[in-house]
Design a protein that fits this description.
about 425 residues; alpha/beta; 6-stranded parallel sheet; 17 helices; about 15% strand
């Protein structure tokens, strides 16, 4: 079996390698191809990955490559974690909007929009190569904004794509610990980074009312300002929200904190990445350092490689993934990509139907899906009209007078990566 990792110069890659080592038996000791366009980072991270495998004793081939065709040829799984423009582009996404009184963030607001505009064309190029070089492969995408990217590939390619994120796993883990229950199952619904838990089942009971009444939060993410949601808010919306919803439910506070911060999250992440790369370059290091937790990728490998295992071995087990709605909820089109629980096996992933979705959640999902669909059109066609409609549909942007000058400044700053835009 062959696994291709695109964007393997990422400091997250050792998480994936650890997952492959831990599941070597069910995965069949695969050949792993590590691809990146940055030779320095690829060699530093790839060298460390090789040492991890050698120390583990697991039989696993490891190839470092800067040839995308070679990497994709005959692959069974393609794991994508690329960041178009690197951290420099992310930091611009965060800083420029603040000058226009808008929130800049990796996946949310106008910062997330420009991340999508850069990323979608590159992902579609990869998908087209996969159609030629490994048409039966599964594309497992982490590249942010993961749901929007999954929508774009789903709309414009025949490749089987699964959008994944560690946020759903961490939400479930946090709630399980707070309610002190064993092995619960969940009703999980939303879009990537715009999601809620609406059912919690264990011991023949649904604990959701207890959780809503108590104002149980889902946990805290490394890259999001600290502070929990009020119990009154959680009870009113009839769902436990992802912490990314702080940017919406506490929009003014999030903007204020971003303006007051000495560094953006991207600037902090860049410092952490530089420190990690120095560690990885140490030839004596052969195990994932604890410091990697500071990068915010908790349970990253568990989510990714368990999904690979489920597909490869036809496990027919539940995973939260980004995939086409296909009737799971009635208030969106079948072709709309949502983030929800699906039964995953060798050939298909079938989303579980959900009916206990509050009008509040429905309204937000419909608004943001309108934004995402316009954003996909803007990214694919380089269409300014679609971009304007996308921004006006996004509750974190939606002010035309603020959006247009910010958009124009960010468009100019990203010119290198937006070749399909005529202006």
């Amino acid at each position: 079996m062959k696994i291709a990792i695109i964007g393997a110069g990422s400091t997250y890659t050792p998480e994936l390698i650890e997952g492959i080592i831990d599941r070597a038996l069910p995965l069949g000791s695969p050949d792993v191809f590590l691809y990146d366009i940055d030779s320095r980072k690829l060699n530093m991270v790839g060298g460390f990955a090789k040492r991890m495998v050698e120390t583990s004793g697991v039989k696993c081939g490891m190839v470092l490559s800067m040839d995308l065709d070679e990497t994709l040829k005959n692959a069974d799984f393609v794991l994508c974690q690329l960041r178009v423009g690197g951290m420099a582009a992310r930091i611009r996404d965060e800083k420029i909007p603040l000058k226009h009184n808008l929130l800049g963030q990796e996946t949310m607001g106008i910062g997330g929009f420009f991340n999508a505009l850069r990323t979608v064309p590159v992902m579609l190029d990869i998908a087209r190569k996969m159609e030629r070089l490994c048409p039966g492969a599964a594309l497992i995408n982490f590249a942010n904004p993961a749901g929007l990217v999954t929508q774009a590939v789903s709309d414009n390619s025949a490749v089987k794509i699964y959008g994944v994120c560690n946020n759903p796993y961490n939400m479930k883990k946090g709630i399980t610990e707070k309610l002190e229950i064993e092995n619960p199952t969940f009703d999980y619904i939303g879009l990537n980074h715009l999601s809620w838990i609406t059912g919690i089942y264990a011991n023949g009971e649904n604990y959701i009312e207890k959780a809503l009444t108590q104002g149980v939060n889902s946990g805290i993410m490394q890259n999001i300002p600290k502070g929990e949601f009020d119990a009154e808010l959680i009870s009113a919306i009839k769902g436990i929200p992802s912490f990314y919803l702080r940017y919406i439910y506490k929009k003014d506070e999030s903007l204020r904190l971003a303006k007051e911060a000495e560094q953006t999250r991207g600037e902090k992440a860049l410092e952490i990445e530089n420190d990690l790369l120095e560690m990885y370059a140490d030839v004596k290091l052969d195990k994932k350092p604890d410091f990697l937790k500071n990068r915010g990728g908790a349970n990253y490998s568990l989510v990714a490689i368990s999904l690979v295992d489920a597909i490869l071995n036809d496990k027919q087990e539940q995973h939260v993934v980004n995939l086409r709605n296909n009737g799971a909820v009635s208030f969106l089109k079948d072709s709309d990509v949502i983030e929800t629980t699906a039964i995953v096996g060798k050939d298909t992933a079938k989303p579980l139907p959900l009916t206990n979705v509050s009008p509040h959640i429905i309204g937000y999902m419909q608004a943001f899906k309108t934004y995402e669909n316009y954003a996909v059109l803007a990214a694919v066609k380089g269409c300014r009209e679609a971009a304007i409609c996308a921004m006006l549909a996004n509750p974190l942007i939606c002010d035309y007078d603020a959006a247009i000058p910010c958009f124009d400044e960010m468009l100019a700053a990203n010119k290198e990566y937006l070749q399909n835009w005529t202006e």
